[in-house]
Design a protein that fits this description.
By secondary structure, this protein is mainly β. It has a single domain, classed as 6 Propeller (Neuraminidase). The protein has no helices and 31 strands. The strands form 9 sheets. Strands 20, 21, 22, 23 and 24 form a 5-stranded antiparallel beta sheet that branches. Strands 1-31-30-29 form a 4-stranded antiparallel beta sheet, with no helix packed on it. It starts with a strand and ends in a 14-residue tail after the last strand.
């Protein structure tokens, strides 16, 4: 098993970690409906209450935290572990939110696009222009489900674009180092797809038989499910992997795949921080833990966080 250091535990299904310059990690607690700051000594501080289900998060050009809120989930809780099983009974819509980390103020920027509601916004990444790409996973109910897609939005609330739809369960999202390629992780198929970025909110579309307009980077055999992702500086795609808990590392051409195992059924997120971005912060969400480990290669610097 991979060597790691536990930073804290007792989190209510943590996701969306952001390794801050001061050494703390800001993350979401989906089952708690909060944004929480975790300090290096393991202390936890709730900095905002978003309601619903805060999921992916990223620091924006204004220094505020942008959050994909999936609108809320129903949970199976047993012996302190959490597992989502369906949309929440009081679910109304998903949204894209902005959080002031200094004051805790929460603003809702978008709940729909072109008259279609956002179902379950999941993960996001900022481009160098200050716009953000995000996935909408969809929503699952007892006998039916909503399909998801990829969206692009401006932070001032003036523009949201449906860039690709439909996609079955798009989860993690990331940009290549040159920002010419957008990657998504598809949860249930354990496939990583790529799209060429043609401009803000514009993606290339592969013809049939591509099921979602993407180009297949890699599909992994056996039973696992893909969650969120982060990229390395050299372009490798690091995808948090459920069931077969760990981090799946895929080269940009899909030719090389490595699995870094971790002891949790729901390894949901990875981000990079620390000196030279060589520390991986990873959410072990089933057991509610945030851990850190030394990473063999530097992570990719993110716009407005590590790259100014």
């Amino acid at each position: 098993m991979t060597a790691f250091r536990e930073i804290t535990r007792g989190l209510k299904f943590p996701e969306g970690p952001v390794a801050m310059p001061d050494g703390s990690v800001v993350l979401t607690e989906i089952a708690g409906g909060t944004i929480t700051r975790v300090y290096p000594d393991g202390r936890k501080e709730v900095v905002a209450s978003t309601g619903g289900g805060p999921n992916g998060a990223a620091l924006g050009p204004d220094g505020k935290l942008y959050v994909c809120n999936n609108g809320g989930l129903k949970w199976h809780v047993e012996n302190g572990t959490y597992r989502s099983i369906a949309q929440a009974d009081d679910y109304k819509t998903g949204s894209l939110q902005r959080v002031d980390l200094a004051t805790g103020k929460v603003e809702t920027l978008y709940t729909q696009c072109n008259g279609n509601r956002l179902c379950g916004p999941n993960d996001l990444v900022f481009d160098a222009q200050g716009g953000l790409w995000f996935t909408d996973y969809g929503k699952t109910r007892a006998r039916d489900m909503d399909r998801g897609g990829i969206y692009y939005a401006k932070t001032d609330g003036s523009l949201i674009v449906e860039a690709m739809h439909p996609i079955m369960g798009p989860n993690g999202i990331g940009l290549s180092p040159d920002e010419k390629t957008l990657y998504i992780a598809e949860t249930e198929t354990s496939r990583c797809w790529s799209y060429q970025v043609l401009g803000p909110g514009k993606l290339s579309r592969e013809p049939f038989p591509s099921p979602n307009g993407g180009k297949l980077v890699a599909g992994i055999g056996g039973y696992q499910r893909f969650d969120s992702m982060a990229l390395e500086a050299g372009g490798n795609i690091c995808i948090a992997t459920l069931v077969r808990g760990g981090i799946t590392v895929i080269s940009p051409d899909g030719a090389k795949v490595e699995h870094v195992p971790l002891p949790d059924l729901y390894v949901t997120n990875i981000c990079f921080g620390g000196p030279d971005l060589r520390t991986a912060y990873i959410c072990l969400s089933h057991e509610g833990r945030l851990v850190a480990m030394d990473w063999p290669r530097p992570g990719l610097a993110l716009n407005f966080l590590n790259r100014r």
